[in-house]
Specification:
Among the domains are: 79 residues, OB fold (Dihydrolipoamide Acetyltransferase, E2P), CATH 2.40.50; 78 residues, Nucleic acid-binding proteins (OB fold (Dihydrolipoamide Acetyltransferase, E2P), Beta Barrel). It is an alpha+beta fold. It contains 4 helices and 10 strands; from the N terminus they run H-E-E-E-E-E-E-E-E-E-E-H-H-H. It is elongated and about 120 Å long.
C-alpha cells in the first residue's frame, strides 16, 4: 500500500502490456493495484491526433513502453501515452515564478514555452526596467528565462509574463522614485488634530454661508434703468468729443 501512495499523476513509468481488451490494455508498472490505459489515451506512431480503431494497432501483449500516470484511483491506476503538460491551467496563478524557453520574438514582445497548453507572452515593456527598442536587445530564441506570471486569462488562453518583475529596480530609478515620493509628501504636510478640526469648521461655515446665499433672492437690475445709464454715458462721451 505504501507504494500506491508514492505513485502520482504525471509520473513516467516503463510498463509491460499484460492483456489487451476492447476498451484498452492492462499494464504492469510495478504497482500493487492494476494499471489500465484506455484506448482514447493511446498514441499511434507518435501522433496523438491519429485515429485508432483498436488497441492492437498500438499495443500488444508483452510489449514494453513508456506510460504516464493520468489519474490514481483506489482500485486502479489510469495511464496515458500522451505526455502531460508540465503546468495545467488550474495550476497557473498570478504571482508565481515559472521558467521557460524563448521560442519566438515579435516586435511587441517574446513568447516563452513554460510547459503549459499555450506559451506565455512577455510584453516588450516587461523585459527590462530600462527602455527596450526591440526584444532582441534583451533575449534571443532558445534562451532559458525565469519569469513572473502577471495575468492569466483562461477563456482567451493567454498568459502574461514579466522578467523585470523579478529584477531589482536600478539605483537611479529607485532614487528618482524616492525623490518623487518625498516631493509628494512635502506638498501634503501632515496636519495636527487641531488643524484638522479648524479646517473642518471652516469648510462647514463656508457651506452654511453658500446655502444661505442661495436662499436669498437676487435683486435684478431694472432693464430700463440699465438702458438709461448706457445711453447717458454714450451721450456724455459724444459731447466731450465734439467740444
Amino acid at each position: 500500500m505504501e507504494q500506491e501512495k508514492e505513485i502520482k499523476a504525471k509520473e513516467r513509468y516503463t510498463g509491460t502490456v499484460l492483456k489487451t481488451t476492447l476498451q484498452g490494455a492492462l499494464v504492469d508498472i510495478g504497482s500493487e493495484i492494476p494499471a489500465f490505459i484506455h484506448i482514447s489515451q493511446a498514441v499511434k506512431d507518435g501522433d496523438p491526433k491519429k485515429p485508432i480503431n483498436s488497441i492492437e494497432e498500438v499495443l500488444e501483449k508483452g510489449q514494453k513502453l513508456d506510460f504516464w500516470v493520468k489519474r490514481v484511483r483506489k482500485d486502479r491506476i489510469e495511464l496515458t501515452m500522451k505526455e502531460p503538460l508540465a503546468i495545467e491551467w488550474r495550476e497557473i496563478k498570478p504571482g508565481m515564478t515559472v521558467k521557460g524557453t524563448v521560442i519566438r520574438l515579435e516586435t511587441f514582445g517574446a513568447f516563452v514555452e513554460i510547459g503549459a497548453e499555450r506559451p506565455g507572452l512577455i510584453h516588450i515593456s516587461e523585459l527590462s526596467h530600462s527602455y527596450v527598442r526591440t526584444p532582441s536587445e534583451v533575449v534571443r530564441e532558445g534562451d532559458e528565462v525565469e519569469t513572473k506570471v502577471l495575468e492569466v486569462n483562461r477563456r482567451k488562453k493567454q498568459i502574461k509574463l514579466s522578467i523585470k518583475a523579478l529584477q531589482e529596480l536600478p539605483e537611479q530609478l529607485s532614487q528618482a522614485a524616492g525623490v518623487k515620493e518625498e516631493e509628494e509628501q512635502a506638498q501634503e504636510p501632515d496636519l495636527t488634530a487641531m488643524e484638522i478640526a479648524m479646517r473642518q469648521a471652516m469648510e462647514k461655515s463656508e457651506g452654511e454661508e453658500a446655502a444661505a446665499s442661495k436662499q436669498k433672492p437676487r435683486k435684478k437690475k431694472d432693464s430700463s434703468s440699465a438702458q438709461d445709464e448706457i445711453l447717458s454715458r454714450t451721450l456724455e462721451k459724444k459731447i466731450g468729443q465734439d467740444s
